[in-house]
Design a protein that fits this description.
With about 70 residues, this protein is mainly alpha-helical. The chain has helices at about 15-35, 55-70.
């Protein structure tokens, strides 16, 4: 799926994931814009996150892992 990413992450603090994604998005946008000599946003929308319980965690992991294998290997 070339137009989005799935991340399964656990944060130590309440706002650390939001800050991490904000920093990552800013830095990548700057890099991308410099490489392609353009300006402005490169994202279609804001990132979304959801809390999941431990029962759903394994289902999410099983869904994401085959996608990762197809993209990386």
């Amino acid at each position: 799926m070339p137009n989005h990413v799935h991340l399964l992450m656990t944060s130590q603090n309440e706002d650390s994931l939001a800050r991490t994604m904000q920093s990552l998005g800013r830095r990548y946008a700057q890099y991308f814009n410099q490489q392609h000599r353009r300006s402005g946003t490169i994202w279609e929308g804001r990132y979304r996150s959801s809390l999941i319980d431990s029962d759903y965690f394994l289902r999410c992991q099983r869904y994401i892992e085959p996608l990762f294998t197809r993209v990386c290997c």
